[in-house]
Design brief:
The protein has a domain of about 150 residues: HUPs (Rossmann fold). By secondary structure, the chain is α/β, with parallel strands linked by helices. The protein contains 8 helices and 12 strands. The radius of gyration is 20 Å and the shape is elongated.
Amino acid sequence: MPIAKEKPYIGRFAPSPSGPLHFGSLVAALASYLDAKASHGLWLVRVEDIDPPREQPGATETILMALDAYGMHWDGEVLYQSKREEAYQRVLEQLWEGGLLYPCNCTRKKLAGLNGVYPGFCRQKTSYPDNEPFALRLKCTDSKISFRDKIQGDQSVRLADLGDFILRRKDLLYAYQLAVCVDDQYQGVTHIVRGYDLLDSTPRQLYLQSLLEYRHPVYAHIPVITQVAGGEKLSKQNRAKALPLDYPRPLLVKAMKALGLQPDNDLLASSVDEILLWGVEQWDINKVPKVPEIPMPMLL
């Protein structure tokens, strides 16, 4: 009997162009890069530019320049989600024909206080409302979704506790949960290393993947980096400082420390390529802290 060959590792980093990369996104990019390269795999970059109201002019170019300055060179061409709308629409039509979607015209006021869990107000609707904007929601069962996260361990959640989620918004923009699943399948992504803040998206994506008969990637969720003051996640919305492009080595070494590596201070004298090579050789995903967040002061 022939021995089954393992699929080649394909990882990805998928930033949204709502602003430049900051230290928190550097840590996320570095984790996915090191995991891919330590596995002799491919590391892809995908720009999630499907939300024009949140996008910042020039952000895509700035993000790609930052990745290049920090030595993380991607394999193949960058994929832009803004060019993938036909693929998303085809999947929506497939789900609609299968009776798995329904239109929802609930207002924000009606949904206030529900903590993001949709209770199914519009679940029985089978036709589009006339002259009124509506979202498309996916019908979720009451089944349990379980998976093993390579960092955070065993996870299990009931879909009913998450609620029916949106795949196309009222403004006709395609939702993150839809686009990410369609594109991970399209690009052959086998491993996803990303921030803990996206852990609760994973059961939704696993469910949608199953409905579409897509492969399930292996997931690993790293801690997010939080502000020195206030404890908020470092993010573009919280005006986190953009990565400096002229002197990347100190932050690159600091990002490795956030991921559980123990670089010697002498590494700062090395080139960016040498620092990354050291990181690839030392990478061990089991050493990544199994916590939701890491405050910046711990890394200073």
